[in-house]
Write a structure and sequence with these properties.
binds hypoxanthine; Rossmann fold; alpha/beta
C-alpha cells in the first residue's frame, strides 16, 4: 500500500473512532503536545482516546514523556484532535514516518494545527518555563520530509499540495497575535522566537549553540520543523509554541538531561493549558469566518 493510501486508511479509522460523521465537526484544531506537556489533554472534555498502537500504520513513540494517544474532544467548546506525544527522527524513524501523524491530521480535514515542543533557550533573557510563540524556523535537520515525488493529493486546500511553495509565513501571524492576546488574558506575556531543529538525540555543544545564535535562532529543539513543513504543504495554518525547558548548552550552570527537560515541561503544562483554552475559541472564530468568506466567493 502506498503512503497516501496508508494515511487515508489511518484517517478513516480515526474518523470512525473520534467524530460524528458530519461536517459540524469541522473546523477543528489539531494540537501536538511535546515532551512533558501531555497533561494538557486533561483539559479536553468529552474525550475519545485512541492509542497510537491501534491506528493502522501509525508510528509509536519510544520516548519517556510521550504517551502516544490521540485525544479528541472539546477544548473550551472547540473541537480539537490532540496528539499526546510525537515521534522523532532520532528514534530511528524515517522522515515519512515522522510526518505521518501530521498527514493524518490533514486528511481528517483540519485547517489549523498548534505544534508545541520543549526547547533549549538560546536568547539571553529567556527563562526556564517560559512559553515562546514561533515566528520562524531554521531547518538544521539535514533533510526535508518532502524529498521524493510530490503527492498533490495532500493538497487539502486550494493552492496546496505543490512541489514548490512559499514558506515566508510558515507560522501564522494572526494565530501568533491571538496567542499573545490569550497570554495577556492569562497574565503573562508571550515573546516571539526562531526555532532551530537539529536531528538530535544528543544536546548541542556550546560551540554549536553560539553558531546557532549567529544564524538567528533563539530556540533549539529536535522536532516541529518537519511537521510544520508538511502542514504547510497541505495548506494548514500553523502556530508553534515552545516551552523553554532549559537554557541551551553552555548558557546555564548545570549539565543538560532529559529529566530536567521533562520536569520543566510538567511545571509549565498548566500555564500552557490555560493559554490553549483561551486561544482555541479565537482560532476557531477566525477559521469559521474564513469558511463563510469562502462560501460567499
Ligand atoms: N536542545 C535540543 N532539544 C531540546 C533542548 C535543548 O537544549 N531542550 C529541550 N529540547
Amino acid at each position: 500500500m502506498n503512503y497516501f493510501d496508508q494515511v487515508s486508511e489511518a484517517a478513516a479509522f480515526l474518523r470512525s473512532r473520534i467524530s460524528p460523521p458530519s461536517a459540524t465537526f469541522a473546523p477543528c484544531i489539531g494540537i501536538v503536545l511535546g515532551s512533558g506537556l501531555g497533561a494538557v489533554a486533561d483539559a479536553i472534555t468529552e474525550p475519545a482516546v485512541v492509542p497510537y498502537a491501534e491506528i493502522p500504520h501509525f508510528p509509536q513513540s519510544t520516548v519517556e514523556g510521550h504517551s502516544g494517544c490521540i485525544v479528541a474532544g472539546q477544548l473550551a467548546g472547540v473541537p480539537v484532535v490532540v496528539m499526546q506525544g510525537r515521534v522523532h527522527f532520532y528514534e530511528g524513524y524515517t522522515p515519512l514516518q515522522v510526518t505521518f501523524p501530521m498527514r493524518v491530521l490533514g486528511a481528517l480535514g483540519l485547517r489549523a494545527v498548534i505544534l508545541t515542543n520543549a526547547a533549549g533557550g538560546i536568547e539571553e533573557g529567556y527563562r526556564v518555563g517560559q512559553l515562546v510563540a514561533l515566528s520562524d524556523h531554521i531547518n538544521f535537520m539535514g533533510w526535508n520530509p518532502l524529498t521524493g515525488p510530490n503527492e498533490p493529493r495532500f493538497g487539502f486546500t486550494p493552492d496546496a499540495g505543490l512541489r514548490f511553495f512559499d514558506m515566508t509565513e510558515a507560522y501564522s501571524k494572526r494565530f501568533r497575535d491571538f496567542a499573545k492576546e490569550a497570554a495577556s488574558g492569562e497574565g503573562f506575556s508571550l515573546k516571539e522566537g526562531v526555532y532551530l531543529a537539529t536531528p538530535g538525540p544528543c544536546f548541542e555543544t556550546p560551540a554549536e549553540v553560539r553558531a546557532f545564535r549567529g544564524l538567528g535562532a533563539t530556540l533549539v529543539g529536535m522536532s516541529t520543523v518537519p511537521e510544520t513543513i508538511v502542514a504547510r504543504h497541505m495548506g494548514l495554518e500553523v502556530l508553534g509554541i515552545s516551552c523553554v525547558t532549559n537554557l541551551a548548552a553552555g548558557l546555564g550552570k548545570t549539565q543538560l538531561n532529559h529529566e530536567e527537560v521533562f520536569e520543566a515541561g510538567r511545571q509549565v503544562e498548566q500555564r500552557l493549558a490555560g493559554l490553549l483554552k483561551r486561544l482555541a475559541p479565537k482560532i476557531s472564530a477566525a477559521l469559521c469566518s474564513d469558511v463563510k468568506t469562502e462560501k460567499k466567493q
